[in-house]
Amino acid sequence: MILDNTLTLDGFISVVRGSEKVELSAPARARIQTARDVIERIVDGEQAVYGVNTGFGKFENVQIDKHQLAQLQYNLIVSHAIGLGDPLPDEVVRGMLLLRAQSLALGHSGVRAEVVELLLAFLNHGIHPRVPAQGSVGASGDLAPLAHLALALIGLGEVDYGGQVRPSAEVLAELGLTPLTLQAKEGLALINGTQLMGSVLALALADARTLLDTANLAAAMTVEAKYGSHRPFQPDVVGLRPHPGAVAVAGELRAHLAGSDIAPSHLTGDGRVQDAYSLRAVPQVHGASWDVLAHAERVLATEFASVTDNPLIFPDTGEVVSGGNFHGQPLAVTVDALKVAVAELGSISERRTEQLLNPALSGLPAFLTPQGGLNSGFMIAQYTSAALVSENKVLSHPASVDTIPTSANQEDHVSMGAHGARQLRDIVNNVAGVLAIELACAAQGLDFQELTPGVGVDRAWKYIRTLMPTLEGDRYFRPEVLRIREAVLSGELIAAARGE
């Protein structure tokens, strides 16, 4: 991939998860140099410019001698690398490397091209700095986490390379890479930004897309296993309240249910008037989540094309401006909305699982086991689903409504976006498990049917049976549910349902 002035979510995923190589474009290199020229002129002059030849935060009024500017930037990184907690996953760190390079390549940060080139070298060689998860309040950027990222660039700290945790300097020497000696403005440019929360949001959004598609499939399978009605999903019904998400979800349900022999079978002799909300209102509930995902994609597209550094360099005028582009609020409130949207996919899924397991609701054997009493069937699988859904209720509390002053009240409002981003990641993983349990139960419910379900449902059912055989009697089936969960997150299950 050529790093220039555009980056898409699909491009991000191809680099972060697909290990696609990245190189800096010639136009980006020219933009970077033009902005760097502005910094060099400031260094040679006498004017005090924040972040270039002054201290930081509350020390903004302390001017630094030009001969100490390299030491200033070094001090900034080593003093700010004070994060705590478990290391972030490698894919999150890869995303941080890519997004930091992308922002610097837009040419308003004043770094040398060598800084961006080393960020890309880390990506391309699979060198992943060890970045503690805790320490960002999400305002002056993700300062502490990004400082740990920068620490590896200057040959300090540890990296994960080839599956081993090793000193950064050792790995750089082995690969023939030279650690950075930071020059004026460069340390600040590396740590002022929203790249932790942006990376987690991008990864979670990609997963949430897959979860939403899979939730639609799971709902269709449960509808078929319970002899549910297809009528609420028809265009004339949904069209009377045509939110884009509801329309899109209803369309996916109809595609999965097309050709069903089960639906026509209960048009006569069935005393039920209407299905439970968790079946009948899937377009409206899943559709609301669809709309939030669409908004998050728009926010992320803007963020990918943004400069989140401070101060900002305007090469055309030579102006250097302190602003608030580093503040994480646009991402923080989006993350919080996405937390709720994804959590709701799990909440309604758990209710559909209950519809399948409860014989008073399903018309199927209790807990989907042929010999209840001797066997418990899927009884405790629903407990696990309920536990995950309840955990998500706590995680969904908005982090962005909190703030706490830092830097002697200079930074007096913060976003807490990194907190929300980590919660979002946990919610995504929980919902994948909830959906895996519903899918396992729906497949078992379909085993009791003698008619052919809709085409997408039928394909998914058969695919699940390659991962998890029918539960004839009690056995240890956790590994099988985990295989289904993996097929959910990888997108393999939804691809099978679509015949791809």
TrEMBL record:
Keyword Cytoplasm on entry: yes
Record EC number: 4.3.1.3
Covalent cross-link 5-imidazolinone (Ala-Gly), where: 139-141
InterPro entries: Aromatic_Lyase, Fumarase/histidase_N, HutH, L-Aspartase-like, Phe/His_NH3-lyase_AS
Pathway: Amino-acid degradation; L-histidine degradation into L-glutamate; N-formimidoyl-L-glutamate from L-histidine: step 1/3
Modified residues (2,3-didehydroalanine (Ser)): 140
Keyword Heme on entry: no
Compartments, as annotated in UniProt: Cytoplasm
Pfam families given in the database record: Lyase_aromatic
UniProt keyword list: Cytoplasm, Histidine metabolism, Lyase
Maturation and modification: Contains an active site 4-methylidene-imidazol-5-one (MIO), which is formed autocatalytically by cyclization and dehydration of residues Ala-Ser-Gly.
Catalytic activity: L-histidine = trans-urocanate + NH4(+)
Domain of life where this protein originates: Bacteria
PANTHER family recorded: HISTIDINE AMMONIA-LYASE
Family of the protein in this entry: Belongs to the PAL/histidase family.
Name of this chain's protein: Histidine ammonia-lyase
Organism: Deinococcus piscis
